[in-house]
């Protein structure tokens, strides 16, 4: 019986994170209203905020307001800010404003600044550097 409960929990974590990834605000809101832990991680250590950071500002705002850990890392060391640095300046600004660690590093040493530079997001490079990002 306990195993089925665990399977259901994992399915819910996956559904919650997928909804954030797809920008499905209503589904994310439903999970939160049902008391779902906004810091739940999938098998790779990814959170809903990490996925929402890929361009879903309103979901990001809601997750942060509900206590989502801004500086949480996936198993590979990825943070929400790193995902946002891949072309989503509005989300980068939100995360910085809420206290994101600008110089957090992935396991391979990459930072949000490195991600922004690699992908030619010069507006984000400037934003990060203006807030103290270092290579």
Topology record:
Blueprint: H1 2-22, H2 25-33, H3 48-52, H4 57-65, H5 80-84, H6 89-97, H7 112-118, H8 122-130
Helix pairs in contact: 1-2, 6-8, 7-8
Features:
135 residues; Serine Threonine Protein Phosphatase 5, Tetratricopeptide repeat; 8 helices; disordered N terminus; mainly alpha; globular
Structure summary:
The chain is an all-alpha fold.
Describe this structure in words.
This protein has helices at 2-22, 25-33, 48-52, 57-65, 80-84, 89-97, 112-118, 122-130. The model is unreliable at 1-11 (pLDDT under 50). With 135 residues, it is mainly alpha-helical. The longest helix is centred in the first third of the chain and has 21 residues, at 2-22. The protein has 8 helices and no strands. It has one domain: Serine Threonine Protein Phosphatase 5, Tetratricopeptide repeat, CATH 1.25.40.20.
